[in-house]
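Ligand-bound model needed. 4'-phosphopantetheine.
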Amino acid sequence: MSKAIYPGSFDPMTCGHLDVIRRSADIFDEVTICVLNNVNKSALFSVEERVNILKEATKDLPNVKVESFSGLLIDYAKKKDIYVVIRGLRAITDFEYELQIAQTNRKLSGDRLDTMFLTTSLEYAYLSSSTVKEIASFGGDISECVPEFVAKLVYEKYGVAPQR
Ligand code: PNS
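Prediction:
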């Protein structure tokens, strides 16, 4: 059975993430989305909230699982017996950061953990969780960036009503 792991902060999950998840689920028999529990990074949503959002958004994809992890990705992947990491590449600006993570994981895992990049669909190439949060914090329109139920949760976090 082909398995892959899709790690990230997902704070919050965007339509760009969902696009990568759907396409990965078509390629692999099983995709495990892993939400990083990073104690050093302050997040808008708790890990539990982020996991629940991802579960809701992927409930129609039977071969997608959502979990959380802390520590090194290579340790988590090894425990799960998974040797492919999925990451989305939006633009050349992502490349340096992604290359560094991919090469670090490969080195740390003794060449066992490889990374497969999916280029983000063009309509989501501009999207990031950070820009979604910034737009929403001012009540701006994020309806094309995240699913409707996620937009509602983000506005609630900021205590703002979306501009119509
Ligand atoms: O969505 P993000 O924040 O760009 O995801 C980054 C992530 C979670 C993939 C990366 O930070 C990660 O894998 N962190 C776990 C710690 C780790 O394994 N570090 C070594 C590789 S840099």
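The radius of gyration is 16 Å.
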